[in-house]
């Protein structure tokens, strides 16, 4: 797997969240469709309506499509746009966490449950209390505590909030002010609601200073992911309009995290989402690009490549194949 492999040739899929359940890899991606909506900075052209769930018994083996595990039409509070999701497992139950615009076009995060990792998943009647923005990632620490990382700028609406409160008008910090942070929150024991108020996830530069809003090559934009390697917490994310996947390392799930470098250089397409997972003794980067659709940024294709670490724990940068 030193060379990236496309996984789902029969559908456009993106935003992968991957977990090992019952000895298999289960993939929870977005399902891209051609909606005909013009491109804009709000991301209206990403008009995803359901999640197909996939599994693999071997990283180079066959990919099984288990069909639709959750659809917009089945969600009681739904408006539109079912974006990047994640999954979790606890006490015999599987959970999907999904961002979806409600009927007032505000993104909330919902939860749906199933007795099987492939679903079908049954959504709750309402979104999680206090949730907002997009791109939930759920990380289970070694002690069994689950944390959610979330947030995304521009179409993800994170700029509409400060201190978990909605603003009258969206506001971006000045270039020399601290960048808008992603959020981290411990989940309740039953994984159905937040167990506390979400906190800001702070990313520091090499001098211990908070990354500034104008530092577009390093500041958080969207696509949170958390994994643990050799006792350290690795927070990885997309820089959005500068099209990189970057990472920062910390000593606990809340941070602060210190910026370390680039995981993936730009891909073909506007940007990419990702996840990092260990399977059968090796680490892998799941992500997407738009090569199969000839660069249509709203029609993306899921792929995987091996991820390698240096002896000091740093991640070797992977060439995304874009500009």
UniProtKB/TrEMBL annotation:
The lineage of its organism: Bacteria, Pseudomonadati, Bacteroidota, Bacteroidia, Marinilabiliales. Keywords: Carbohydrate metabolism, Glycosidase, Hydrolase, Polysaccharide degradation, Xylan degradation. The keyword Cell cycle does not apply. This is Glycosyl hydrolase family 43. The keyword Repeat does not apply. The record marks 135 as: Important for catalytic activity, responsible for pKa modulation of the active site Glu and correct orientation of both the proton donor and substrate. Belongs to the glycosyl hydrolase 43 family. It comes from Mangrovibacterium diazotrophicum. Signal peptide: none annotated. GO terms for molecular function: hydrolase activity, hydrolyzing O-glycosyl compounds. Transmembrane segments: none annotated. GO terms for biological process: xylan catabolic process. It comes from the Bacteria.
């Amino acid at each position: 797997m030193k060379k990236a492999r496309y996984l789902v040739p029969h559908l456009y899929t993106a935003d992968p969240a991957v977990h090992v359940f019952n000895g298999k890899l289960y993939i929870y991606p977005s399902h891209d469709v051609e909606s005909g909506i013009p491109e804009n900075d709000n991301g209206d052209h990403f008009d995803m309506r359901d999640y197909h769930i996939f599994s693999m018994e071997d990283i180079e083996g066959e990919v099984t499509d288990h069909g639709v595990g959750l659809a917009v039409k089945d969600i009681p509070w739904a408006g539109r746009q079912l974006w990047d999701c994640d999954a979790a497992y606890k006490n015999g139950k599987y959970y999907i966490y999904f961002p979806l615009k409600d009927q007032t076009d505000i993104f909330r995060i919902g939860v749906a449950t199933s007795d099987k990792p492939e679903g079908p998943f049954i959504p709750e009647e309402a979104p999680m209390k206090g949730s907002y923005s997009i791109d939930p990632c759920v990380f289970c620490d070694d002690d069994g505590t689950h944390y959610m990382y979330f947030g995304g700028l521009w179409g993800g609406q994170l700029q509409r909030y400060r201190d978990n409160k909605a603003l009258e008008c969206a506001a971006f910090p000045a270039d020399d002010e601290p960048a808008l942070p992603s959020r981290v929150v411990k989940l309740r024991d039953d994984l159905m609601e937040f167990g506390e108020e979400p906190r800001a996830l702070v990313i520091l530069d090499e001098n211990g200073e908070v990354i500034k809003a104008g530092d577009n090559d390093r500041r958080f934009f969207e696509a949170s992911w958390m994994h643990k390697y050799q006792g350290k917490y690795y927070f990885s994310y997309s820089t959005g309009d500068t099209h990189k996947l970057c990472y920062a390392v910390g000593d606990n799930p809340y941070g602060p995290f210190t910026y370390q470098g680039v995981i993936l250089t730009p891909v073909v397409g506007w940007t990419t989402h990702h996840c990092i997972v260990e399977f059968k003794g090796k680490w892998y980067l799941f992500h997407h690009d738009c090569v199969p659709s000839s660069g249509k940024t709203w029609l993306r294709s899921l792929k995987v490549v091996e991820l390698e670490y240096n002896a000091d724990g740093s991640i070797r940068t992977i060439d995304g194949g874009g500009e």
